[in-house]
């Protein structure tokens, strides 16, 4: 039996940082953001739908998706974001399930699904436990602006397109509070995995 862990949080709270800890321990991670990039490669069904709806203005000259441009459109507009989600999310879900089943069949004791929008898309049934990576909202804003080199308005528009991290924290099975050092977060994660009965050579 594999334990399926849904790793989530909100933008820039530290999901990738925690996901790297799992990878370093050789616990497999299915990465929804990565899949989201693959399903919009030129020629894929979601790509065609995006071009039909948003037009060529969201493409570079070589035909690949201009993510910055598309981001500017969808993070300021709920309707357009929902439209984009409707093109991409079904494709992401299919591929996530395919990868999850592959790891389960291989007999992995734990499989992580790293899904930024687990709560927003109500994907609780895809996982056994929900692990939320939390930071205080002020730190979230600071880290996001610093990482992406974005201004406050741009960063807030992304944060506000998601359920607040404070609310997700309330609904989690377990929380890694990533406000402190990365080392501190790693200790919290080890503790959680041991509590969940995951036996692993690195823990
Ligand atoms: C709009 C796009 C092109 C912007 O690309 P960009 O490279 O700037 O951002 P990236 O994909 O790395 O996403 C960064 C973070 O933004 C947040 N985010 C992305 N898409 C969304 C969305 N539709 N709604 C809310 N938050 C989102 C997530 O926290 C994600 O981790 C891209 O995010 C996208 O295609 N989004 C739709 C697919 C999606 O929902 N992906 C995220 C979950 S799988
Ligand atoms: N404990 C920490 N202390 C200081 N900086 C941190 C810590 N954890 C993460 N960071 C930094 O904060 C930023 C956001 O972290 P990360 O990219 O892991 O978040 P994320 O939740 O995966 O973001 P996204 O939703 O955009 O994928 C990064 O620049 C990362 O290096």
TrEMBL record:
Cited Gene3D superfamilies: P-loop containing nucleotide triphosphate hydrolases
InterPro entries: Depp_CoAkinase, P-loop_NTPase
Enzyme kind, highest EC tier: transferase
Keyword Kinase applies: yes
GO BP annotation list: coenzyme A biosynthetic process
Keywords (A to Z) from UniProt: ATP-binding, Coenzyme A biosynthesis, Cytoplasm, Kinase, Nucleotide-binding, Transferase
GO cellular component, one term: cytoplasm
PANTHER family linked to this entry: BIFUNCTIONAL COENZYME A SYNTHASE-RELATED (PTHR10695:SF46), DEPHOSPHO-COA KINASE-RELATED (PTHR10695)
EC number, as in UniProt: 2.7.1.24
Name recorded for this polypeptide: Dephospho-CoA kinase
Gene source species: Piscibacillus halophilus
Family: Belongs to the CoaE family.
Gene that this sequence comes from: coaE
Claim: Nucleotide-binding is one of the keywords in the record: yes
MF-aspect GO terms: ATP binding; dephospho-CoA kinase activity
Function, in words: Catalyzes the phosphorylation of the 3'-hydroxyl group of dephosphocoenzyme A to form coenzyme A.
UniProt-annotated location(s): Cytoplasm
Reaction catalysis annotation: 3'-dephospho-CoA + ATP = ADP + CoA + H(+)
Residues that coordinate or bind ATP: 12-17
Pathway this chain belongs to: Cofactor biosynthesis; coenzyme A biosynthesis; CoA from (R)-pantothenate: step 5/5
């Amino acid at each position: 039996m594999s334990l399926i862990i849904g790793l989530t949080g909100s933008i820039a709270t530290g999901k990738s940082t925690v996901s790297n800890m799992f990878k370093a321990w050789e616990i497999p991670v299915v990465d929804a953001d990565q899949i989201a990039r693959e399903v919009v490669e030129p020629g894929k069904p979601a790509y065609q739908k995006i071009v039909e709806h948003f037009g060529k203005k969201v493409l570079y000259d070589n035909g690949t998706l201009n993510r910055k441009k598309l981001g500017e459109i969808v993070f300021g507009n709920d309707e357009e974001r929902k439209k984009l989600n409707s093109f991409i999310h079904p494709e992401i879900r299919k591929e996530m399930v395919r990868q999850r089943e592959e790891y389960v069949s291989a007999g992995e004791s734990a499989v992580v699904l790293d899904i930024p929008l687990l709560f927003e898309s109500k994907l609780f049934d895809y996982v056994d436990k929900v692990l939320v990576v939390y930071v205080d909202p002020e730190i979230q804003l600071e880290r996001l602006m610093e990482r992406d080199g974005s201004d406050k308005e741009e960063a807030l528009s992304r944060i506000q397109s998601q359920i607040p991290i404070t609310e997700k924290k309330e609904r989690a099975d377990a929380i890694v509070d990533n406000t402190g050092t990365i080392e501190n977060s790693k200790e919290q994660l080890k503790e959680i995995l041991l509590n969940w009965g995951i036996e692993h050579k690195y823990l």
